[in-house]
Amino acid sequence: MREARPSGGAAVADKPATAGTRAPRQKPAPGGGDPDTASFAAWLDAVPFACAAYARDDGALVAANRRFLDEFGDLPEHTQRERLLRGLHGDGSADAQPIEVHAPHNGRWYALHWGDTVQAGRALALLTAVDISERIETLDSHKTQQEKLLFTSRLMSVGEMAATLAHELNQPLAAIVNYLNGSLRLVDQAGGPVQVERALQAARAQAEHASAVISRVREFVRAREPRRDAHELPAIAGTVLELLRLEAERLQLRIDLALAPALPAVYADRVMIEQVLLNLVKNAIEAMREVPAARRELRVEGRVNLDGEIEVRVCDRGPGLSAQDQDQLFSPFFTTKTDGLGIGLAICRSIIEYHEGRLFFEPRDGGGSVFGFTLPRAQGRA
Ligand SMILES: Nc1ncnc2c1ncn2[C@@H]1O[C@H](COP(=O)(O)OP(=O)(O)OP(=O)(O)O)[C@@H](O)[C@H]1O
Ligand SMILES: [Mg+2]
Questions:
Q1: Does 320 score more than 90 pLDDT?
Q2: pLDDT band for position 5 (cuts 50, 70, 90)
Q3: Residue 233 is part of which domain span?
Q4: Ligand 1: which of 158, 283, 330, 359 to mutate, most ligand atoms within 8 Å of CB?
Q5: 7, 151, 236, 335: which could join 342 in a potential S-S bond, CB 3.0 to 4.6 Å?
Q6: Residue 108 belongs to a domain with what CATH number?
Q7: Residue 209 has what pLDDT?
């Protein structure tokens, strides 16, 4: 039996076996039949919310209505005010009104209101607990909807632009490739010159590359439904660096992976985060094209930041960014590269914001850039 401390209060009784049913109020406990408290308890029973009265002096439960016992009777702390508060939200203070708490014993959300009253000369703190789970769930689902919409609308605008671009560019690109093939045949038949042949081949390769880039963007933008789960950062980073290993070797570029030991798992769609990291590392590699080989150092760091999120940082020794470029960095189609689309960072930002994280830039100590993002931990979510 749970300990209950009725001071003659009829309603301070253990929860009946038929939890949730509205059993008739129990008779006053033998010997404890204080008629004032009994009528007070009857009055509490008429309140359509969970309701309980605690003594102001020692915090003991004095009376409670049936609904309170049904909903909080399973929480061992319900018999004492400070213990109840600690059990529900970690501390015994009740300064803010109402206090919204997530009850651990039944998973419901409650708004707790405290009021003062005096009953039979005893100062009481009167608690009303209103079940607000439905409101919280609706709010949560609206928030998720909004996030999804924001994400989808960003991707859609990028997607629409990509589709238009693909439509506008595919035809002329195909024509260019055809003309180049024709010219190559003519040069071949005429027997040279070899420089012209090489130039034509290079031009064809570039045109083919351009169509490949367009179809890649279209493919990405036709995004599948994201699926978030618990994932280990070392595995994600490993996949991405493996994809870029050959390119890094060709450019005589060192990639250091510096992940803090025992990083907690992130709550993320793995493919999307790989996409983000790939974009950032590619940008970092491209930023060091003109940098002397000895200085081409790329570092991928992972750690838990002060807010308890997982933070990934891609650090390069490239030229960094002017203040003006920093302002436009994440806008779609901002690029300073002749072969860039300017779409990489815009997509990264959509993905990271969808994951409730932040994509950021900061100058690197000693020269270069740091592009980083944060992700929530999986703990408690996946
Ligand atoms: N690590 C970096 N160092 C310096 N500048 C950078 C870096 N990363 C991005 N930038 C700047 O931001 C611009 C936009 O980057 P973003 O990845 O969006 O597009 P992009 O690399 O130009 O083209 P793509 O769409 O192919 O990725 C780049 O053109 C470059 O000017
Ligand atoms: Mg890029």
A1: yes
A2: very low
A3: 226-382
A4: 283
A5: 335
A6: 3.30.450.20
A7: 76
